[in-house]
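#struct-help
A.M.: can someone run this one for me? Single chain, 111 residues.
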Amino acid sequence: MMLCRVTGSVVSTVKHPKFVGHRMMVVQPVELDAKTPVGPSYPAVDLVQAGVGDLVLTIIEGGGVKIVFQDDKVPLAALITAIVDELEVEDEPTLIGTSVLERGMSERAEG
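D.P.: on it. Structure tokens below:
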């Protein structure tokens, strides 16, 4: 899961049938301070009625969307699964480098 800030919404008159009734939002991954952007923004299907400015948790491991929608051919890899009301980090240094995004970014930098 990734901690993100909702930065916008996607408006479309036509969308994949599985997404009818769900909003598409643009999210920006953030550091554990909930403010500092890290990595590129990406689209995510909103399952929790998030709004612009909300701090949210997203699933970006492609299989999550497929499991939720029970369809292996859903054309999206991210879901907003929770709105974060409060964030308390007790031992931040032990969490650095543990997110999927951070691992992927460091692998690209090394390779």
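A.M.: thanks! The chain is about 15% helix and 30% strand.
D.P.: also worth noting: The longest helix spans residues 100-110.
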